[in-house]
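Section 5.1 Outputs to date
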Amino acid sequence: MNLSNLRPAKGSTHTKKRLGRGQGSGWGGTSTRGHKGAKSRSGYSHKVGFEGGQMPLQRRVPKFGFNNVNRVEYRIVNISDLEALAEKLDIVDINVEVMHQAGLVSKNDIVKVLGKGKLTKKLNVTANAFSKSAEEAIKALNGTVNTL
């Protein structure tokens, strides 16, 4: 086998419809475009959402709501989750990297620790944000709270 006898797989290619090449071809005359009208002309392009002159849907339906560009989307981790993680891995220092390796958060998440659950062990926690209740619960057991 060499470059001179390479062929596409059988059935993988199709012959192109040669439009407008006479009546004998079967695709002469109107060239499969039907009779008259804008769609039969060259250069025709339809507008997105055009409904033949009827008021289009995107103009009939009113606008509502808004998206805050300054919104910060936090990944929430509760102190009960941190307690379970500390017991499982037998560690005291917990940061975002440890949470990521344990599968609690994703790689680029912004993490906020919330105060749901009970804490019975001293922990040194590093995260992007803390709720007041979580901060108080950690500090009550002489743990440290480090905000990134």
